[in-house]
Amino acid sequence: MEMTTHHGFQTMFHEGRLTLGIFAPIEAYEGSIPTMRDHLARIWRAERLGFAALWVRDVPLYDPSFGDVGQIYDPWVYLGYVARHTRRIALATGSIVLPLRHPLHVAKAAASIDQLSSGRLVLGVASGDRAVEFPAFGLSPEGRGDRFRDSFNLLHRVWKESFPEIDSPFGLLHQVDLLPKQLQAPCRFS
């Protein structure tokens, strides 16, 4: 699929035109933790003003030495909430830390948000930049590159294929399928 036919991508990118997006949390705050007060009203205003995208981050744990915690909420739960209350603004992740999440959960969550938002999801994925988070999940930061590649490949297959036969480091898929599928081919960035 060409990105020019992807709903979220079309909202964010226009040839010859500048578009603007916003990153949550949309507030000025002291310290590392936002209040998230009035965040939905700010998102509505951004949508009315023509902002192209709302970006959210995947920050599983608060590391005081690293700084802020993003929008505090789990990105999938938050995007589901925002999808319910908006109509046009693209919903983008910048980025889901793929090595810290099971790829089947990511695939299902992303496809669900894509369906519930009428195709507005733009999925950004990354290998993770906060090494302190990996041991908390029983993982070594040194293995994140391999986990990222394996996860990325599994995501692609379960979205594209029906009943894929997969034997991966994450498990065995045999005579099962992931539902829902995305409305359109996934728009992914890393």
Automatic annotation (TrEMBL):
GO molecular function, one term: oxidoreductase activity, acting on paired donors, with incorporation or reduction of molecular oxygen
Luciferase-like domain boundaries: 20-182
Keywords for this protein: Flavoprotein, FMN, Monooxygenase, Oxidoreductase
SUPFAM superfamilies registered for this protein in UniProt: Bacterial luciferase-like
Superkingdom of origin organism: Bacteria
PANTHER family (alphabetical): ALKANESULFONATE MONOOXYGENASE-RELATED, C2H2 FINGER DOMAIN TRANSCRIPTION FACTOR (EUROFUNG)-RELATED
Name of the protein: Bacterial luciferase family protein
